[in-house]
Amino acid sequence: MPDIESLLKEKRVFEPSADFTKRAHWSKRKADALRKLGAQNPEKFWAQMAEEHVTWFKPWRKVLDWKPPYAKWFVGAQTNVAYNCLDRHVEGEHAWRRNKAAILWEGEPGDTRVLTYAQLHREVCKFANVLKGLGVAKGDRVAIYMPLVPEAVVAMLACTRIGATHSVVFGGFSAEALRDRVNDAGAKLVVTADGGYRRGKAFALKPAVDEALDGCPGVSAVVVVKRTGEPVSMKAGRDHWWDALMATVSADCPAAKLDSEHPLFILYTSGTTGKPKGILHTTGGYLTHVACTTKAIFDLRDDDIYWCTADVGWVTGHSYVVYGPLAVGATVFLYEGVPTYPGPDRWWSMIEKWGITILYTAPTAIRTFIRLGDEHPKKHDLSSLRLLGSVGEPINPEAWIWYHRVIGGKRCPIVDTWWQTETGGILITPLPGAVPTKPGSATLPFPGIDAAVLDEAGREVPARAGGFLAVRRPWPGMLRGIWGDKKRYEDTYWSKWKKIYFPGDGAHRDEKGYFWILGRVDDVMNVSGHRIGTMEVESAIVSHEDVAEAAVVGRPDEITGTAIVAFVTPRAGMRAGRELMDEIRAHVTKHIGAIAKPADVHFTDALPKTRSGKIMRRLLRDIAAGKETVGDTTTLEDYSVLAKLRESEE
Ligand code: WTA
Predict the structure, then answer these.
(1) Is residue 637 a part of any domain in this protein?
(2) Which of 76, 415, 448, 575 is within CB 3.0–4.6 Å of 45 for a Cys-Cys bond?
(3) Band (440; pLDDT cuts 50, 70, 90)
(4) Residue to probe by mutation, ligand 1, list 366, 400, 419, most atoms within 8 Å of CB
(5) Is residue 630 pLDDT above 70, yes or no?
(6) What is the best residue among 526, 528, 530, 560 to mutate for testing ligand 1's pocket, by most ligand atoms within 8 Å of CB?
(7) Ligand 1 mean position, distance from CA 287 (Å)
(8) How far is 467 from 506, CA to CA, in rounded Å?
């Protein structure tokens, strides 16, 4: 764990400001009391959160049913996520929110839309009726493959309203990636758009859907949002325009009363081996977790304008763009395009224009802006901001300090939030009105969360010693399984220790108990805050006809955190060179998406392997990073392979 050294030098501490603390939902006193309750009686703590933050149609018989590694939360209770995100803001006690903006949206070309809670409620009810009309029933799966337009949010909420389980597939993924995910989840309907805007140009989505669906016999209908107006082909009997269907349905659709453990969504994420894992989340526990963390950590208030820059294709977009913020009745800003179009100040101009008060983004974006120069944010009035957040990878202290100084004007607390697709919601984080922050540390576990740093044997390591991050007690937002693969769920997360969740990250704690996350300990690469498995990229490369074998590893990259480096052995007689390199990169883009495209490709006659034939990625990582090879190489099958790889570096 080599990062420990550099992190030890970080001594700066930032106390919550008096101004912030005065108004915070969770004052220091409240946070301390809840932390104590969460430690002594976690079930009571979560029950209190569930009562405070969620409206239930039927109460639970039991808070938690824990048969490791399977948890059920709020057993026997009924609720509905869409009801909590919409209906309770348009009727009853909070009916005054009817005409409050739920979504403020800006397209990349500069077009804008506003949907009030009443309007969003109406759209969701209508689209829920569209889904029903197309034969979607409770328990069915629906794939959503869209640009970041309000209809993506409408589609998600409409599924939850009728108890259909959605699987959002990031619009940047390829047709093949979409096909695999549609088939794995057994989706019967796909919601998509003709395309969207990126970097000043329209990109197409519908052709990728057509290509994917050639191999998806289970899909009977496709609903297409018109966004760009570019021509698309519509298959008669299967494809329908969103607007045409919406014009035919009623706006009356009561929210289904769903069991607390009803499947809410599946979201695919990378693992170390094989195909992506369909992470399954359910209803009542997930909603409790995201609603209470949103309120406590982002301190969301009715007069805030909150912007989480994630796409709805990632878990951050599920939990902290859609479900958490809408559950607490917030105004959510959405932006369709890239951060630097038409100029490097696009984000800052929108913060000024809309008066955004809370910004939640990823370290990779922050590092990009640092490189682009301070003059761009400085051109704009960012004084509306009052809180900043970070997620997706460890934030380096320099980036933290820049974010604090240049974007936050030294007045905004920063919440560095650690969590995963699997955890559903934030687990380790500062509480902005209560917990002093240290640049580079996600600080302390959220109340009720029993996180620790353990060694291989499951013993807690001493302060400052590196180890494995672990969660020792179940929590309401935790994954309930991997779709269709019980064994993989048990093996991946619950086999390292007994009854303890293993997230796959390394960490250490300081004397104050603060957590410092050191990154993944497995082979999963974190590129721009997105997890990419080595296996998927390797399979894509090897599927190129001129390639015999491939291994990919990550190397540190100033902007994206990690860049993908591929080591490739061409088939006998095939010539390695620029042309093949370009083809390989294009091949990966086609099979997975541009996000997985290798930054470097090295050709080699052979890959370093152990006697049992396992590729020694540790060695490749050193070579990719240009480091001297250290550590044990005695299991290397062929020393000369290493020497040759090094030569090709020179
Ligand atoms: C990493 C994103 C350090 C970590 C919500 C984790 C972080 C993986 C942080 C999950 C953070 C996320 N500090 N590392 N604040 N947040 N990570 O599933 O390695 O896309 O395991 O979920 O991102 O990525 P995922």
Answers:
(1) yes
(2) 448
(3) very high
(4) 419
(5) no
(6) 526
(7) 20
(8) 6
Looking at ligand 1, which atom is closest to the CA of residue 417?
15
> 450-485: per-residue pLDDT in tens?
999 999 999 999 998 989 999 999 999 999 999 999
The pLDDT score that the predictor gives to residue 4 is: 41
Q: What DSSP string runs through 620-647?
A: HHHHHTTPPP-S--TTBS-HHHHHHHHH
392 CB within 6 A, ligand 1? yes
Give the predicted TM-score (pTM) of the model.
Answer: 0.92
Indicate which residue's Cα is closest to atom 8 of ligand 1.
420
Its sign, for the CA torsion 452, 441, 511, 20, is: negative
Residue 196, in any domain of the structure: no
Confidence of residue 2 (pLDDT cuts 50, 70, 90): very low
The rounded Å distance from CA 69 to ligand 1 centre is: 22
517 lines ligand 1 (CB under 6 A): yes
Residue 34 identity: L
Q: Which residue's CA is minimally distant from atom 14 of ligand 1?
A: 393
- Residue 569 has phi, psi (to 5 degrees) of -105, 115
CB atoms within 10 A of CB 340: 15
Of ligand 1's atoms, which has the minimum distance to the CA of residue 422? 18
Boundaries of domain holding 618: 526-649
Does residue 417 have its Cβ closer than 6 Å to ligand 1?
yes
Q: Is 418 in the pocket of ligand 1 (CB under 6 A)?
A: yes
- The pLDDT of residue 641 is 65
Q: Which atom of ligand 1 is nearest to the CA of 390?
A: 15
* 6: confidence class by pLDDT, cuts 50, 70, 90: very low
Distance CA 645, CA 625 (A): 13
Q: Is 271 in the pocket of ligand 1 (CB under 6 A)?
A: no
H helices of 277-389, where? 284-297, 315-317, 324-327, 346-354, 363-372, 375-378
Residue of minimum CA distance from atom 15 in ligand 1: 418
Nearest to 446 by CA among 49, 23, 20, 13: 49
The answer to whether position 616 is within a domain reads yes
pLDDT single digits (tens) 82-118: 999 999 999 999 999 999 999 999 999 999 999 999 9
Instruction: Name the domain count of the chain.
Output: 1
Residues written for the chain:
650
CATH code: domain of residue 538: 3.30.300.30
CA of 359 to the centre of ligand 1 (A): 18
